[in-house]
């Protein structure tokens, strides 16, 4: 028999699981995918090289904006307000906390890593492995409540990456040019904007605190569009995560000389 839910805890079952399917497969896939991104991100951050292609103005997303005095010449489009603090504090360290903060506090990602990393809960109709459940009422999970503030930072980062995409259409001679890298950056920026704007905080910002939508037709129109995006938030979360890693990897390979950037024009 399962215990009835209470105001202070989760419903518990007397057996390991009531499921007969492979309930552990989705959490396992999520765990491996997120772990792969984390490992790549850590390695890429402390690699501290091959992130700028001066010939085509390609800047790797992990290093944008490059605000440290340690940044290579030409990569700092917004100045270098941060000092060079050595190899243990590479340039991405000054920006990644805001980007990761937005992802980690995202409602979808909470579900993803709560189930896959903490097994809290691992799946529906599966026994809760933890003795106590406090939700997001204690440190560090109470910090999930600052998601809306990380959303504002994510808007700035998306705007910066949009600028990086625009200057990536410069050719080798300083004029207009199109390469595979610049097209990949367009896809990445579109996915990042779609993921950011599909955020629950954005939806609340557009349509929250309104008692009568009929009196705010413009905001209601935007709210309906954001609501449609919000329904695809999980898909956009994964697509944008993959696109960031792939574009960063592509710029790294071009910058390292692994192969030339295929040019469609100039």
UniProtKB/TrEMBL annotation:
Q: What is this protein called?
A: Uncharacterized protein
Which UniProt key words apply to this protein? Membrane, Transmembrane, Transmembrane helix
What parts of the sequence cross the membrane?
A: 23-43, 88-109, 149-169, 175-195, 235-259
